Each structure stands twice: as C-alpha cells, then as structure tokens.
C-alpha cells in the first residue's frame, strides 16, 4: 500500500495523469477507487493537510523538539477565560461548509468561554433568511474552496453581509478578499508596496509569450487558488514555460491533488520570481498572540509548503516586527505570513492566509517550550502555554469579543 501511495504521489506531478484521473473521476468514484487512493495516499488525492492532522491531542511529530523534555503537559494549560470579560451573553454565527473536525473545534471553544454558536451552511437555500432571523453579535466566515462554485458562494456572502447588514464579520473583508486568491494577493502587495518576490500576471498568450522569451529562469508558476503547493510549479526553462502557457490559454491546467475536472484553471498565467536558496518562515498572528517557526522539507520534497515539516526556532525579532508592521498598517485580525528570507537577509512576503491549518496545541516552541509572543509597548514578551488548542479557535473568539467591546 505504501509503495502504491508513493507511485500515485509521483504520478500526480504529471498534468496528463491528473487530467486522466479527472476524466475518469465519475467512474472511479462509482467503483470506490478514489476512496482507496485517499486511504493509501493521504495528503495527495485526499485532504492536502491530512498528514498534518493529529486529532488525538498529540504533538505533531514533524516538530524538531524533544517532547520528553517538556515536563508535565498540564503545566502548559491556559485559562482562556481570564483573557476576556463577558458583559453579556454572546451569540456568534459561523458560516462555513461544515465538517466534523472544524465543528468540534468551534463548539469546544465556545463551550470553554460560555458563548453560544449557530452554525450556518453556505449551501443552505434558506441561509440568508436564517441569518436575518438570528440575533447575532457577530459572524465568523470560514471559506472552504473545494471548487469554484463554493468559492463564489463565500465571496457573494461576504459582499452581501457587509453591504446589506450591520453584522460584524471576522476576519475582515480585506483579509477574506486575499484569502486563497493569489492574483488578488499579488495586486494587494504591489499597490501597498509590500516587499515580495516580483510577480507578473498575464491574461493573454501574446504578452505571456513575449515575457517568457527573455525572462530569467527558473520562474515559479502559481494558480489563483490551491493550498499545500498543489498549484505551484517551477519552470526551469523557456520550453517548459511556453508549453505551460499554451495549455493555460488554449487548453486548461489542472492542479496537483485535484480530481475534479470542473476545477480547471485557464485564461491567465501568474509568474513569480524564483528566490534561490531562500529560507521560509511562517509567522502567525491571532489577535494579540504571535507564533513562528521555520518551514522545512525532506530531501525528496520540492516545496516547503505542504511538506508537513517544521523547524522550531525562536523567531527573529526583526521578522516579528516586519510582520507586525504590515498587520498594524492594514488592520489584520488573524493572519498567517509565509515569509522568504533571501541571501541578502531581506524579508519578502510569499503568502498571506487568514485561515490556516492549526492542528497542534501550540504553533511555536522556544527553547523546547510551547508558547506565544505578545507585544507590550513595542517589546516582545514570551508566555509559555498551549495557546492553539481547538484549532486556534479560542484565540479568534477572544479577539472578536474584544473588537466588539471596543466598538
């Protein structure tokens, strides 16, 4: 089974194989072959984050820490109720496409704080009638982009809730607009002069072809959507790049990990400067809490993203400040910053994601100690503890409540 899984993972790199699986998808589903592939090849044809999840409350074994040196796990428990004062009985909505994993995190977090929650399904035909009749203090919007239809439903929901209701939403509309939207993110970074790898987006074959003729290689191609490097390819030379351009403008492109033919990409080409020998870090902000680690990969992996491998470090102070300055300027509530450090030591924003996988009770270890950073009067202070239990949902709830209380 393991050998078959490795073979399928390698075949997924080839566009023709992905298209073949997509064309045969209805038949493979009927014969339950897709379910078999999902079991033997987790993190590829299945959920791209599945290899990271450990729902048995364990610690992620890809963290390079010695769990035996942590001491009593109970000593890192956090009393989240001390971070919030509940002046009233809060009721929050949660708009998503429900699944058991997220629902458990949401309900457990709400129970700990003693607030009520109403779950709304984005596919409910009576969605807006139900929201209108619910007495909500605010609503969380957690988009799930399994296909373009669902993606558009969430985009429409954000627009209608912001324009036609007085409901406060979390995260902000700005954060939701750039979430899993690489073209929009590229525009956001450019117009706000935020350091990032040079990015060009083409919408016709002629302009893309002219650029590719004289471009410096390698280049990085990215699809508009796609997590865990599923829509990322390194173009090593002009021949590879022109072939991909022809597919994008005259045929279509199917992301790795994708088995649904209707999720094709076409009509544009997003190209990013290749940062040679870059280090990549993930810095996470949830309200006033900050976390960070270095992304890593094994020898047989091409990308840091989706590798499932993390190197626990004490995040450099200048890196924390770099991300915090962006966050303050643009009023971010919750954000995951994927940051490149080039050979000159400059920081460049690679990705910004307001929702991110959080499967471990902590997202940072400093000197083998789990915890978070907070910024007090311009100084960073470390606090030990498991702050990311229940998918970091507790921290999101606490921050949303503080926003409502300050408004």
The CATH homology group name of the largest domain:
ATP-grasp fold, B domain
What is the string of helix and strand elements? HHHHEHEHEHEHHEHEEHEEEEHEEEEEH
**Tally of structural domains:** 4
Bulk shape: globular
Give the integer mean of the pLDDT values. Answer: 85
Write down how many β-strands occur, each being a DSSP E stretch of 2 or more residues.
16
| Residue share in helix | 25-40%
Summarize the biggest pleated sheet: 5 strands, antiparallel
Query: If you compute it from the alpha carbons, what radius of gyration comes out, rounded to the nearest whole angstrom?
Result: 22 Å
Strand % is 15-25%
Output the number of helix runs.
Answer: 13
Give the second-level CATH assignment, the architecture of the largest domain: 2-Layer Sandwich
Major sheet strand order: 11-10-9-12-13
Q: How far is the N terminus from the C terminus? A: 56 Å
What's the CATH class of the largest domain, please? Answer: Alpha Beta
Structural class, please?
A: alpha+beta
Uncertain parts: 39-62
CATH fold category name of the largest domain: D-amino Acid Aminotransferase, Chain A, domain 1
Describe this structure in words.
With 407 residues, the protein is α+β, with helices and mostly antiparallel strands. It has 4 domains: 2-46, no CATH class; 77-178, Rossmann fold (3-Layer(aba) Sandwich), CATH 3.40.50; 198-273, ATP-grasp fold, A domain (Dna Ligase, domain 1); 279-391, 2-Layer Sandwich (D-amino Acid Aminotransferase, Chain A, domain 1), CATH 3.30.470.20. The protein is 34% helix and 21% strand. The strands form 4 sheets. It has a 5-stranded antiparallel sheet with strand order 11-10-9-12-13. Strands 2-1-3-4 form a 4-stranded parallel sheet, with helices on both faces. The chain is globular.
């Amino acid at each position: 089974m393991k050998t078959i899984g490795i073979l399928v993972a390698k075949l997924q790199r080839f566009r023709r194989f992905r298209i073949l699986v997509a064309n045969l998808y209805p038949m493979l589903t009927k014969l339950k072959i897709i379910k078999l592939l999902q079991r033997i090849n987790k993190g590829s044809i299945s959920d791209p984050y599945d290899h990271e999840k450990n729902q048995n409350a364990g610690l992620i074994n890809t963290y390079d820490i010695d769990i035996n040196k942590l001491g009593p796990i109970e000593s890192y428990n956090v009393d989240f109720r001390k971070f919030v004062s509940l002046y009233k009985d809060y009721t929050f909505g949660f708009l998503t496409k429900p699944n058991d994993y997220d629902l458990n995190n949401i309900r457990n977090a709400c129970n700990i704080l003693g607030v009520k929650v109403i779950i709304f399904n984005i596919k409910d035909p009576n969605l807006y009638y139900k929201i209108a009749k619910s007495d909500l203090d605010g609503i969380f919007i957690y988009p799930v982009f399994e296909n373009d239809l669902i993606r558009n439903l969430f985009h429409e929901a954000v627009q209608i809730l912001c324009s036609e209701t007085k409901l406060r939403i979390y995260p902000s509309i700005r954060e939701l607009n750039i979430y899993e939207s690489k073209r929009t993110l590229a525009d956001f970074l450019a117009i706000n002069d935020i350091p990032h790898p040079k990015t060009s987006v083409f919408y016709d074959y002629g302009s893309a072809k002219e650029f590719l003729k004289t471009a410096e290689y390698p280049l990085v191609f990215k699809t508009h959507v796609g997590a865990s490097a599923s829509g990322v390819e390194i173009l090593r030379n002009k021949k590879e790049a022109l072939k991909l351009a022809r597919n994008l403008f005259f045929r279509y492109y199917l992301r790795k990990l994708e088995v649904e033919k209707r999720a094709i990409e076409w009509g544009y080409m997003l190209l990013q400067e290749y940062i040679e020998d870059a280090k990549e870090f993930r810095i996470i902000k949830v309200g006033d809490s900050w976390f960070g680690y270095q992304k890593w990969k094994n020898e047989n992996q091409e990308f840091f993203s989706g590798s499932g491998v993390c190197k626990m470090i004490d995040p450099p102070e200048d890196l924390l400040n770099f991300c915090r300055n962006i966050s303050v300027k643009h009023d971010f509530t919750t954000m995951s910053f994927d940051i490149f450090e080039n050979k000159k030591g400059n920081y460049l924003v690679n990705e910004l994601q307001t929702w991110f996988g959080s499967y471990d009770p902590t997202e940072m270890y400093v000197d083998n100690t789990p915890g978070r950073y907070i910024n007090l009067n311009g100084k960073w202070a470390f606090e030990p503890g498991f702050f990311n239990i229940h998918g970091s949902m507790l921290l999101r709830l606490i921050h949303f409540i503080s926003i409502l209380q300050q408004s």
